[in-house]
Amino acid sequence: MQQNGSSGSNGHEGCSRSGSRERQSPSLSPLLPSATTRVRRFIQERRTLPLPRVMVVFSGTGNSEKPSDAMSSSDSAEDDFRKPPAPSPNLSLSKPLRPAPSPQEEQEFPEVISLNVGGMYFTTRLSTLRRYEDTMLAAMFSGRHYIPRDPEGRYFIDRDGKYFGDILNFLREGELPHRNRVRAVHREAQYYSIGPLLDSLEDIQPLTGEKVRQAFLDLLPYYKDNLERIVEIAKLRAMQKKARFAKLKICVYKEEMPITPYERPLFNSLRFERSDSEAKLFEHHCEVDVSFGPWEAVADVYDLLHCIVSDLAERGIAAEQQCIGVCDKHLINHYYCKRPIYEFKITWW
Prior knowledge:
Blueprint: H1 2-28, H2 31-44, H3 67-82, E1 112-117, E2 120-125, H4 126-129, H5 136-140, E3 155-157, H6 164-173, H7 182-192, H8 195-201, H9 207-217, H10 223-241, E4 245-252, H11 276-280, E5 290-292, H12 301-314, E6 318-326, E7 330-332, E8 335-336, E9 340-347
């Protein structure tokens, strides 16, 4: 009987255990459908909710998060994603020394302007600098351009100020410089693009005479090249001989064709009416260093010699010249070359 009781008790315990198991197993069954429903709900709402906002948590204990908790956690994650990164304290933002002026803003100037032109100080009215609209000074002080200042606040112009006073005197009263300053002031007027001053200077000496002289030199397009050749040859010979000066032979002739003294009175023009084949018989090069000619103008050989000597002196080169004869080369029949030959002495020191 006891065994039956024990077995009965055991049977009761087994039933109780099996009953508890049966009671526990139904508790898990509601969990899976609810989680599946939530997943389906989020999948259906994925068109309205961004992907980072979908957060599904599976829990074996059945303590799953509510949709509101998932949404709040996803919102905080999205806020963290949208926050800009904080700048590093070690990085320093470099600021420009001077803000760039807006193209629509115009700089204002006082009525009295203080200038620093290459270290020389000038004071003038703003209206004086703006007297002629098409000049560089009027454009600089129009307010559309930035002008630097020196430590004392003067407007700085990076130009030699030796002749700037002559520029201001013309802008104030139309006064022209002295003759010995005309060339230098003319160069400054070209730099500042002051057209009225350029026109006025070109109508007085020495620029008027320079225009006339240049009209003659334009007949010799090779003039500047020959002048450079004279300087180079004279320098090379002086260095080779270790001498203070150098001598060159230069041919300067005005007539186009070589003639003899007997033919000169028979022709009134500078040209000979000869065929091309006959003209080639007279083509030759005199045995000289540099040759100038021919040209057709009233100016003669001595005028060209004066131009050569004066242009060399303008460059600081002392030159002397003298005629040492003619070429006297036989060409054909009784024709000889009668081009004059001049000896130039170039002194270097």
